[in-house]
Amino acid sequence: MAIAFTLNGKPTTVDVPPEMPLLWVLRDELDLKGTKFGCGRSFCGACTVHVDGEPQRSCRMAVSRARGREITTIEGLSEDGAHPVQAAWQEIDVPQCGYCQAGQIMSASALLASNPQPTDSDIDEAMSGNICRCATYTRIRAAIHRAADLAQAPPTSHETATGGSEA
Ligand code: FES
Ligand code: FES
């Protein structure tokens, strides 16, 4: 079945079974490997993408529910990796193994879009569904505060950014 949606700003159509999880479509049909499979059961957050700007677990979202909607993955968060969250992640050197980090960044960027200056408890609540087996939580929290500051005062040219890892 043909299903059309906007993916990272571009009109996209896939011809797949409607019940196929969006995560499968992203990784296997569209070759966007930044979004990761962790648990497949909405428990870990590794597969988080934005759907109409809201964080969603793509492992449990049938692709049919993407029809007509705006989907953003880690590859589309910014054109050059300069989104304030990506810049802050790089500056604070958040990742350890990196596997969970695309999902962390997508949840963090959705949080900041709705709450530009979150408190520690706002962050803990918004990020509670994103598990990091390397326990980078302290750096994640620091990076979200830093991203909030960067969003208000854009990074200078020497500050570079990071994007999704391939795996
Ligand atoms: S893979 Fe989707 S929440 Fe774990
Ligand atoms: S950095 Fe390894 S699981 Fe989060």
Fill in the keyword field for this structure.
167 residues; alpha+beta; Ubiquitin-like (UB roll); DNA polymerase, domain 1; five-stranded mixed beta sheet; 5 helices; globular; binds FE2/S2 (inorganic) cluster
Description:
- With 167 residues, this protein is of the alpha+beta class.
- It folds into two domains: 2-76, Beta-grasp domain (Ubiquitin-like (UB roll)), CATH 3.10.20.30; 84-152, [2Fe-2S]-binding domain (DNA polymerase, domain 1, Orthogonal Bundle).
- It is built from five helices and five strands; from the N terminus they run ββαβββαααα.
- The protein has helices at residues 22-29, 84-92, 101-114, 120-126, 137-152; strands spanning 2-7, 10-15, 48-51, 54-57, 70-72.
- The protein has a five-stranded mixed sheet, sandwiched between helices.
- α2 (84-92) packs across α5 (137-152) and α3 packs across α5.
- The protein binds FE2/S2 (inorganic) cluster (2 copies).
- Residues 95-101, 132-134, 136 line the site of one FE2/S2 (inorganic) cluster (FES).
Q: Given the structure, what is the number of helices?
A: 5
Order of the strands making up the biggest sheet: 2-1-5-3-4
The CATH architecture of the largest domain can be given as Roll
Order of secondary-structure elements = EEHEEEHHHH
Helix content range of the residues, please?
25-40%
Shape: globular
Low-pLDDT segments: none
Rounded to the nearest angstrom, the distance between the terminal CA atoms is 28 Å
Radius of gyration: 15 Å
**How confident overall, as mean pLDDT?**
93
Structural class: alpha+beta
CATH superfamily of the largest domain: Beta-grasp domain
